[in-house]
Design a protein that fits this description.
Low-confidence stretches: 1-6, 16-36, 463-477
Distance between the termini: 41 Å
Number of strands: 15
Bound molecules: magnesium ion
Order of helices and strands: HHEHEHHHEEHEEHEHEHHEEEHHEEEEH
Number of helices: 14
């Protein structure tokens, strides 16, 4: 019979967090090498609003990303990898809990993300990847943008992270400039946004000096790696960039042919190189899984050239077209991962399940976990178990992918005033393998595929009622 945990605390107690703490020192002294081999270090580098087409290895003609390109060539480059939502807050809830945001309540059709006046955050009952890894004795750090609740009870330090350094929400919030929109974003200055920079639970700088954030986040990451090189560690490095307003440090300004957006991405790339070099120098690379991806698609629909590119994919941030939710995704773990380009389907939610399986951490069994185990693909032993993607906008299901086919029940522009929701009956249908740009609707030719997708939806939308919560993101404080 399934064990039902009444709270996150019960789960942690049952999974042996207390035992892990008391046993680790003895275990380390008697069997350090075995322990190191069995428990890989994990680093997730999660960009903000980076598009599918913004890296050299994903086809961008002028943005130079030699470090990420090499990382992909030494590991796996995924071409059908998705996030849990097309905007920041729900996407972050998805990657950290392995669950669709509709289950944790971290989504809303009114205000789509948390704001500085929001009173909500990730519910205490949710179990994060950091909390799961704490049960295995990991040292954990969240470095960068959090965006799952800025009030003390919701901060990373209350969600399984030993250390936090970063901004609690987006870098375009706390706008104090009163300048016209065009002027402030096209010629941004740090003082226009009064965003706090936090260390653990204290504000250490306000406004956060944004030109040096990418570098400082990386400095903190490297420091954490060095300080914990003898323990298994988990670092969730959620870069603030390339979310607007765009900021690059002096060394990267005016460097890229792509303009400021290119400068910002090239600085991220350079700093990824610093992390991989550190792992190599410390001889940790063969025991460290590094994953690079982004929280949602590019914001070009609103910010034009200040936003990124979804490449050949349609749409961008905020929409349920492919450009809003399909992301570059690179997995790197020299000597373990089978190198190559992967066309199987994966999701950020699968990172949760895969890491639990890799580390032997217990997957919570009192709730629905939407992630699947991607180890067969990573190690080249089999296909991805994931066959479906559910595209939510807020609390509403807009589209479903099953295998090669995607049906849109509703479409809506990502952003913009006077945008309208379009209902499609029959749903629009695209073959994403043959038509990744979603240009040619084949619904009339294939009613049987639509019927099959609808049947999958019916099965999916009948979980236990307690697990499909309503939104817990209040519209204001
Ligand atoms: Mg984002």
């Amino acid at each position: 019979m399934q064990k039902v945990f009444s709270s996150r605390r019960d789960f942690l107690r049952t999974a042996g967090l207390g035992i892990a703490y008391t046993m680790v020192p003895q275990f380390l002294t008697c069997s350090k090498s075995i322990r190191k081999e069995k428990l890989p270090n994990i680093i997730i580098i999660f960009c903000d609003d980076l598009g599918y087409g913004d890296l050299g290895i994903y086809g961008h003609p002028t943005i130079k990303t030699p470090n990420l390109d090499r990382m992909a060539l030494e590991g796996q480059k995924w071409t059908n990898f998705y996030v849990a939502a097309s905007v920041c807050t729900p996407s972050r809830a998805g990657i950290l809990t392995g669950r669709l945001p509709i289950r944790s309540g971290m989504c809303s059709s009114k205000r789509r993300v948390l704001f500085p006046d929001s009173a909500g955050g990730l519910p205490e009952s949710e179990i994060t990847l950091a909390e799961v890894l704490k049960t295995k004795g990991y040292k954990t750090a969240c470095i960068g943008k959090w965006h799952l609740g800025h009030l003390p009870r919701y901060l990373p330090t209350k969600n399984g992270f030993d250390y936090y350094f970063g901004i609690p929400y987006s870098n375009d919030m706390d706008d104090v400039s009163k300048l016209p929109w065009k002027q402030k974003f096209w010629n941004p200055k740090t003082e226009y946004w009064n965003v706090p920079l936090m260390q653990n639970e204290k504000v250490i700088e306000r406004p956060a000096e944004q030109t040096s954030l990418t570098k400082r986040y990386t400095d903190e990451t490297i420091k954490f790696i060095k300080n914990n090189k003898n323990n298994p560690f988990f670092i969730y490095l959620a870069h603030t960039m390339p979310h607007v307003p765009l900021f690059a440090s002096k060394n990267f300004q005016n460097r890229s042919l792509r303009g400021l957006y290119g400068d910002v991405v090239e600085e991220i790339d350079w700093n990824v190189g610093r992390i991989l070099r550190t792992l190599n120098d410390l001889k940790l690379s063969s025991n460290t899984l590094v994953i690079f991806t982004s929280d949602n698609g590019p914001w070009w629909l609103t910010y034009k050239e200040l936003g990124g590119s979804a490449g050949l994919l349609r749409g961008g941030k905020g929409s349920t077209w492919e450009g809003g939710m399909r992301e570059p995704a690179i997995f790197w773990w020299p000597g373990h991962i089978k190198k190559g380009t992967i066309t199987d389907i994966g999701s950020t939610m699968d990172i949760f399940t895969t890491i639990c399986k890799l580390t032997g951490a217990k997957i919570p069994d009192d709730r629905i976990i939407d992630g699947v185990d991607l180890r067969p693909v990573l190690f080249g032993t089999g296909p991805s178990p994931r066959k479906t993607i559910f595209y939510y906008r807020g609390t509403k299901l807009y589209a479903v992918r099953k295998g090669s086919y995607k049906a849109h029940f509703f479409t809506e522009p990502g952003y913009g005033k006077n945008r309208k929701v379009k209902k499609h009956n029959p749903p629009l249908l695209f073959n994403l393998e043959q038509d990744p740009s979603e240009r040619f609707d084949i619904s009339k030719e294939h009613p049987e595929i639509i019927a099959d997708i609808l049947e999958t939806c019916l099965l999916y939308t009948s979980p236990s009622p307690r697990d499909l919560s309503t939104s817990r993101m209040p519209s204001s404080a």
